[in-house]
# Entry
Amino acid sequence: MSGRIGLVAGMLGVGLLLIVARLVHLTVVQGDTLAQRAARQHRHRETVTPQRGAIVDRNGRRLAFSVGAESLYVHPAKLPTDVEDMIPALAQHLSLPAQQVDAILHSSKPFVWLKRGVFPQEASQIKALRVSGLDSKSTQRRVYPYRTLAAPLLGFVNVDAKGLEGVEKAYNHYLLGPVSHTLGERDGRQRAILIRGGGQQPETFRVRLTLDTTLQYVAERELNRAVQHSRAAAGSVIILDPQTFAILALAQVPAFDPNMPGYFPPDTRRNRVISDYYEPGSTLKALLVAAALDTGQVSETDPIFCEHGAYRVGRHTIHDVHPYGELSVDRVLTKSSNIGAAKIGQLLGKERYYDYLRAFGLGQKTGVDLPGEINGNLPSLRAWSRIKLVTVSFGQGVAVTPLQLACAYAALANDGMLMRPYVVSDVVTRTGEVVHANGPTPLRQVIQPETARRIRTLLEHVVEPGGTGRRAHIQGFRVAGKTGTSQKSDPRGGYSETGRIASFIGMVPAEQPRLVILAVIDEPQTATYGGTVAAPVFQAIARQALTYLGVAGSAGEGVDIQWAARPPVSPAPPSAESAFSSEAYDAGGDGSSADRSEVDDFIGLSLRAAMRKASANGLRVVAHGSGYVTGQRVRNKAQTGEAVYELRLEADW
# Structure
């Protein structure tokens, strides 16, 4: 018996020694390592991205803002065994293919995102299914209430609220703001049980653009019409304030919806106004004549013999569309003679002409505050042969971005002073403090003020009866402009036999320009000349813009237009049919511009907040959809002499 007791006691002693040794090893040898591992498992530190700041137009209308959302995630190993039965319901609520949901739920990873940036209504439907192993975290989602409007300029963000293109990218450091952090504790199932630190912070900065929503809508609507009517491949429009070089509108077709950029080809998301170049054709002749006048090489009335339509230069022959004999410099511009331009270029000389083109900003970035701008293509002076001087004189063999050409003409409109264009007016804090501002930034005096005024007078003749740009004429206003028709280069070399670019650029009123407008139509099929395809686009946009801005014509009155002065609120592209579109409203004929101009802007508000605000203003509200207001329309529903206004709101998540 005593032997057995001794054996048991010895075994217990050894066991106790082993336990003590293990405790010493865990606490002394591995103490720090295990403590760090425990902290990692039970404590978590997360980065909290503040609410991304809003982007507004020059009048304060929100073009981009962020709303609260949730990101759903799963721990596949913790999902219930009957999760297969839930896949159809999950796929339906998430608007995802069932195969994609199935692949996510059966992932071999310990953690995987199910869907990010889900609106609260959608997330609540998923949570109602009560799937263990599925959870969410608060986040934000970017909303563009006008959808395609100004999309290439605005850009878009990724799921982490980081700007990827446009203003969203260029001003990302302001829009995103400083990040904060939260500290918390987790239980054994990794569920949060204690959180210390602030939640999502409100937006820090707001970016205000020089863009005007109304002018942007007009530009896109008229450009869409022209592209569709001419069956063109694409098009672009720029509206520039020549007194400040602020960009008032920047439109392109085709465009994309920044709310869902992944559904559109990358080519539509690129801002082609600054990232693509083209040969300007005859629109470059105005810069040529301006340089020749500024240096005194020619005067407006000097005769130029245009060889009756065919001019031999070495082994090459230059042609005009119509045969001309002797034309004055003025008429060379009016008739857009290639031969006349070639001879003016020879009088000016390649060195002087090259220097003036560089001074006008060709072959270099404009410095606009947008990402992705390119230099264009102005061949170095060493590459200028005799024929190169001739072809560049009428706009061939040199390439510009649309913004470069618009800025060059804005310099003509600004008495010869070239400035830096910009799209952001300022960045302000929640308290109204301006932390960043852009404004007129002079670069250089390209030509003398008197020369600029002389060239504007010559360009007025282009728009008069008999000129190539007569379709840009606006009754009651003096318009100065130039047509352009150029061949597209062929990737295999040389020029395309069929591809053409039609353009028109003008300034109005010519005596003291308020607007410079460029319209470019890429590969029109019904006609190819800038005076036929692009000049009417300029006229349609300029007429409406002058009225909207309150610019009086020579008769002292603005031009009547058929749409409200209030900015459009249709969430659909201008070409789309929509019951809430500006055009559909106007066709109804039961309201007036004055009625509409008195109603507040509800775009971007939650539907509930908008309805409260409208009811407080005595408006009868009819709402469609749910979420945030993306469209509004007002009708006068009075059946008697008393006015009764009905506000129709369209909302979407």
In short: Residues 555-598, 639-643 have pLDDT under 50 and may be disordered.
